[in-house]
Amino acid sequence: MREIIIGTRGSKLAVIQTEWLLTKLKEVYPELKTRLIKITTRGDRYSTTALDKFAGQGIFVKELEKALIDGKIDLAVHSLKDLPTEIPDGLILGAITTRLDPRDVLVSRLGRIAELVPGSNIGTGSHRRAVQLHAIRPDIKVCNIRGNIDTRLQKVSNGAVDGIIIAAAAMIRLGWEDRITEYLPTDHFTPAVGQGALGLEIRSGDKEIASIASKINHKPTRQCIIAERAFLETLGGGCRAPIAALGTVSDGKLKLDGMVASADGTHILRASEEGSALTPEQTGKRLADKLTDMGAMQYIAR
Questions:
Q1: Per the residue annotation, which of 74, 82, 104, 257 is the catalytic one?
Q2: pTM higher than 0.85
Q3: Is 82 a catalytic residue?
Q4: Cβ of 267: how many Cβ atoms within 10 Å?
Q5: Cys-Cys link to 191, which of 15, 75, 77, 195 (CB 3.0-4.6 A)?
Q6: Cβ–Cβ < 8 Å for 258, 286
């Protein structure tokens, strides 16, 4: 078996995620030889620029995809919430790993969401998180904050902000669960499409890598993610649009919750759809159609 070259972003979280994935692969293939390559993406180079200032999508994946297409790496590891719904020709999602907790969490010096005093400054680089926070606490100030997780947490510690909203999965992978103030309920904070899961992107014709990757694919998570991504793709929303979805699978049934909001957060549409876990894409498209009928496109178009 040849040496497998794996590409990842160079952040602390990305490397930890990839090392976890390597552990899973070596549980199946103990003799597997791997080499890790860290690749800097545009999103990493401009780590203080607000996400909505970037043109196009895929600011955390394009450089990894180019390395994959050029044959410099055999497999790219992504946080699935960063991966656009449109994958370049010649590449496929070879596997989706078991999803960790998909929720958002609050890390705060001042207590839970309900305990925050009016005017508190809560940091997030996510439009989706900002509008959902505004919907339940319009008296709280939301400030744009980016950078690696250490930097964002430091801003809470030094009082630059009163708290931040971040993915639970990130804190769990870093071993910082004890720093979480509150897990935010998904009925008020619907997570980003794919949040909490990792995607392994590979070249479509590489059968050896496809066979290796398939061994750590988690079918229920993949079914949820396919539904969520179909929902997002049907609506035509990119990473800048306040769109969110979360799928859950139980007893062969898939339930998909979706959210679309106006840019200012004054209007939020929510709906759910159920279907067979065997046809997740259809469930995603039906939910998108349902929200379109409710008027979602007027917010997405803006």
A1: 82
A2: yes
A3: yes
A4: 15
A5: 195
A6: no
Which pair of tokens denotes residue 118?
Answer: 């009016």
Do residues 209 and 262 share a domain?
Answer: no
Radius of gyration of the chain (CA): 19
Residues 13, 95, single domain; the answer is: yes
Query: Which amino acid is present at 295?
Result: G
Residues 9, 89 within the same domain: yes
Domain ranges, residue 36: 1-99+196-217
**Is residue 191 within a helix (H) or strand (E), and if so which, with residue range?**
none
Query: Of 157, 183, 209, which residue sits at a domain end?
Result: 183
DSSP 8-state assignment for residue 132: H
CA angle 134, 194, 207 (to 5 degrees): 165
Together in a domain, 93 and 202: yes
Look up residue 73 and give its DSSP letter.
Answer: -
**pLDDT 10s per residue in the chain (302 long)?**
678 999 999 889 999 999 999 999 999 999 999 999 999 876 555 444 444 543 445 666 889 999 999 999 999 999 999 899 999 999 999 999 999 999 999 999 999 999 999 999 999 989 999 999 999 999 999 999 978 898 999 999 999 999 999 999 999 999 999 999 999 999 999 999 999 999 999 999 999 999 999 999 999 999 999 999 999 999 986 546 699 999 999 999 999 999 999 887 788 999 999 999 999 999 999 999 999 999 999 888 76
Torsion of CA 252, 227, 206, 210, to 10 degrees: -30
